[in-house]
Amino acid sequence: MPFLYGATLPEILLIVLASVVVMFAQSRVQGAYQKFSRMAANTRYTGADVARMILRRQGIDNVEVVMGQGVLSDHYNPKTKVVSLSPAIFNTNSIAAVSVAAHEVGHAIQHAHGYAFLAVRNTLLPLTVVAGNLAWGVILLGLFISPQIMWIGIAMLGVVAVFQTVTLPIEFNASKRALNLLVDEGILSYDEQSYAKQMLSAAALTYVAALLATLFQILRLVLMNNRRR
Ligand SMILES: [Zn+2]
Predict the structure, then answer these.
(1) pTM above 0.90, yes or no
(2) Domains of the chain, residue spans
(3) Is-catalytic flag, 11?
């Protein structure tokens, strides 16, 4: 844990909170995934079938659905217009599989409909990657050289926080679309929809936790830098 030397109690609490919220959210999403990947949906469609079916019914014919690697690595890439589903999601008909597949297609639909937050997010992405990669290095440099440099590093974390904030409505909106589509298309019953909702809410929580962790870190760095003057 960097920069703990001489930290005050509130600063230490903020550092602990930043780790705890992330660990809590991770355990929640893994728990939900464990539970709902073992629960078969009352449909024979796999995640891949569901994704392709929804895209077709939405009249989106330029998005490809492919099998990726790993666990919970599912995503939609707006640059290549590819929905990438992890093997367990791609190949099975579990509640987890159909809900995650529908969620990722939700992002493809947002993209096709020109959903505003998605455009903002994609504009912020390159800047956020640079800021995110450099922030801690600049903060460390600031710690040795001057508080002014440290403020620059903190501002870079601020850019990350803005990006994470814009991500939230995108994630919630994709899940909302997914849950409605799964029932509208007759893929899930209302009972099953509540399970799918639990799965997708747990996944969304990781984005909330990531934002909170960044905000806690920013706050404790601000406290720390103010103390130095
Ligand atoms: Zn998402």
Answers:
(1) yes
(2) 9-41+95-228
(3) no
